[in-house]
Amino acid sequence: MISFGPTEEQELVRDTLRDFAASVVRPAARAADEASELPAGFLQQAWELGLTATQLPSAVGGGGEPRSPVTNALVLEELACGDAALALAATAPGAFAFAIADHGTAEQQARLLPRFCGQQFAAGAIAWIEPSPVFDPLALATSAEAKGDGFVLNGKKRFVAMGDLAQDFLVIARRANAVKPGFAALDAFIVPRGAPGVTLGEREKLLGMKALPAFALTLDRVELPASARLGGERGVDARRLLASSRAASAALLTGLTRAVMEYAIPYAKDRRAFGEAIAQKQAIAFQLADMRIEVDAMRWLAWKAASFLEHGRDATREAAQAFGYTAEQAVKLSDAGVQVLGGHGFIREHPVEMWYRHARTLSVLDAVAAL
Amino acid sequence: MIDFTLSQNDQRVLDYVRSEALVARRYARHFDENEHEFPPDELPEAKDFPGAFAVMGKQGPEDSGPVVLGMLITAGQTWGDYSVRMRRGRGVGLGNAALAASGTPEQKAKWGGLLLSMAITEPGCGSDPSLVQTTAKLDEATNAWVINGEKIFVTTGCRAEGAVVWATLDKSAGRAGIKSFFIPKTAPGFVVAHKEKKLGIRADDTAAYVFKDCRIPRDHLLGGREEIPKGESGGFRDVMKTFNMTRPMTAAFGLGMSQAALDFTREQLEAAGVDLSYGAGVHGKSAAADRFQRLEALQEAAMLTVLNAAWLSQSGKHNNLEASISKAKGGGAVREITQGCIDLLGPLGVSREHLVEKWFRDVRITDIYEGTGQIQRLIIARTILDYDRTQLK
To answer: Annotated catalytic, B370?
Structure first.
């Protein structure tokens, strides 16, 4: 059935997150960007919304609600409308925990998930991106070689969000004996931060999303037991892992672009030139109309990918379309937002220049989030 | 619940529509190259095809519903051809939509069964219908309206049995003075001047009308209100309402053809060994694959805006804004997609041995009729800015 109607429960979640974004996230965003730091207490405050624990199995102490990528798409859009950097930080534990819940063995779930069901914030981090201008999530340099019952990991990762607080990293690597690159060659490993050979590097200095703590990670002959391989002998469904991430990015980019639109509209109605509001000129009004058109299109693409994930269907195509489309539009429309505000779009008193930097940054971070 | 998967029944209907479309496509080139001919009301193969709505059956709770599925059926039909259909239904002209929106119950009962065209556009007035110059004067002596004027770009204009025609009772009254009339083809003074020659959708019947002292009975004024309302737009608003369904539908027409272009392009590229599989990042695929996938995403984005407008209507919610969004998005998308497919196919794309060059021509109208992309943006901008038409012109 094709339907665009959220359930009553989803409407409630969306409204709650919209309030949280407006009252907590947005007011803190600029200072966090300037300081390149998350606001004090923010992670715990977001934790108390229960975004991660609700959808974890009751067997490990979670809320036992069914996993719902669609609900999570609504959550991410709302949070990112507040601020995309803070949104990604708040949902990073979920990205790790949901990967364990969706792909992990019973033993891995029992070992790793209880900490995400408690009262205190717990972090996890996904390490997929690598430091190469030709990085491709399906063709990784980081390798995993079988050794005895276990594995040896070697490689370099970048942009590992929440790497400083995570107890464990989910490292995506290429099986050393794989014949050709592609989904089938990928594996995911749970790597404890204290494992010998694991070095957390410098904090990334970014154009946008500056408040998000992201780090380089080096894996130098890191020896892992067989139990570190996500999914055990079955391994990980890498298509689903990547689709989940891309759909999540699409939802974040939708929220971010909606923020630009919702800021530009009242500004353009208020700002006057040549005897009328600039919004009364088609040159401006049509740019705002395009924002309105595209925010819808972006959201539906994100929802469609999320819906496919929710049904357990292969969402590779849908998620790639959603991420590719929203990435392009977010940059284009936040750029238009800067232009509508003119000089004020360039001044750090208004948030639009920050959103432009966020959009440019988030749109090239493939494989950082999850639904 | 938010859901984007088709039910088994939905899929079965769409598979059936595809089987019809494949037959219709066999005739597509012929009617494109023989513009003076009209495709038949029924193809010779029709005896073997019961029709999509017969196949659809009763909609269950797991199905997408008649309006949403209707959009997919529409796009599935134009995937075969814009003008050639297994069956061309009667009573589905644009004029029928106008009659349904603004006619009295008696008028709907009397004329609803006829195929009606809608005649608004004139040589000097297109996007701004308040400039209508065609006049209607009441002749009290004979209780008849006398219509004078010229109408162009009338869809299904040659084959329609009657037309819903916009005419003004009083030019000085502006929009409020415009009324719509039902005029049967048999009315004295109704002349079908010619069939227009076009870039695309050539098999489609697009006519020009002339009304020369054309006389119709007094009760042929749709809605029956003869007075000119003060300070409001009168029947204008009613007629505009009909666009809330026809605009997404129009976008769906175009998107069926751009989908056809994408499917042909994929087939050709894959046969030539181009890997179009999804998953890899920008460095893991060819430039052609990247371009193609962007076009597919654009197609998907546009189609989803159409489905949203349809879903809102089906759910009994307002969809004025979303209807315009779908039309604006669809109108732009189909142009870019068919242009892009030709880029990817090169000379093959412009050869009349294949249909891509035809789809490129056929879709171009999508961003023009039923309100240009610019008119849609005006509507969208006025809505989101809460402006009326004096504040944003």
So the answer is: yes
